[in-house]
Amino acid sequence: MPSAYVLDNGAYNIKVEHSHAAEPKLIPNCIMKAKSEKRRLFIGDQIEECRDASGLFYLLPMNKGLIVHWDLQKTVWDYILSKDCCPANFAETPCIFMEPYFNFASIQEGVAEIFFEEYECQSFLRIPTGDLAEYHYRKLNPTAPCCLVIDTGYSFTHVAAYINGKREPKATKRINVGGKVLTNHLKEIISYRQLNVMEETFVMNQVKEDCCFVSQDTKADFAKCRLKYPQNDIVREYILPDFTTLRRGYVQTLDQPPVVEQQKLRMNNERFSVPEILFHPSDVSIPQIGIAELVQHCVESCPEEARSHLYRNIVITGGTALLPGFVDRLYKDVRALASEEYDIKITLPKK
């Protein structure tokens, strides 16, 4: 079976590789400038070569999940397709390009023009990420007539219902909450309470990935955070990197020996109050419903005979879904909203 070149153009990471590969390469979809090396631009994963990654200045080709700076995006694609990253022979290999739902026609035309004219692509398929997630789920579960795909990424979260392999347009919805909102909110909280980190997006995104989790009972966890350690088993210390002896920070409990020479953050209720935005966007003045309500709204927009199948076949994709506790909390909230007659099953594919 011939392979295809698959490029998932995410706003935070681009996932790229030939279809026969075991796993994709993750390339940051950005160009970065560093204070320590002002004459050089770091494209994608070249940031690993930077000696001091503090105070990085980001040049982002995408805003709110849509391509807005074509020169930057083309530079990132040029690097990805170069021999230093993941080259492709488009004369023989078809290209599958994944895009978000509701992409503008002008952006679709621009992408097609670049790949056909600049990269001389012979076969090109542009498709929403959720369509392929549903296709893969249906291959593994051939008896499932319906599927509900939740794609929670960097810029926003989509929920889309599929019935007999076809997406229902009226049951495809979006909320403007994703990993970027969480990282920015975490930066604001830490900057107000402890240390000015408003320019440390790279580091604070790592703090979010290493420290944060989705609470199953926010009231109980907030009450626990008011206690002292060890009764408070949520509080942690995050040792910040200095980019000389330590490239990435790490989490430790309070009973471990103190690290004197390194800066550190005390992470308490921030660990779960930040991801709570996914379920209650109004907490940060975003006038939209949370993911659980969005799931219910999409299912209720479908014919009644399909609803039980949709609740039983919920599949999640996107990097934000990797937060610990996300699936359990989503199940709990959807279970509380859905009618008792419906069974609920949520699948998070392995990385």
UniProtKB/TrEMBL annotation:
CDD domains named in the record: ASKHA_NBD_Arp6
Annotated signal sequence range: none
Keyword flag Cytoplasm: yes
Pfam family, one: Actin
GO cellular component labels: cytoskeleton; nucleus
Alphabetized UniProt keyword annotations: Cytoplasm, Cytoskeleton, Nucleus
Subcellular location: Cytoplasm, Cytoskeleton; Nucleus
Family, similarity comment: Belongs to the actin family. ARP6 subfamily.
Protein name in UniProt: Actin-related protein 6
Organism listed in the record: Apolygus lucorum (Small green plant bug)
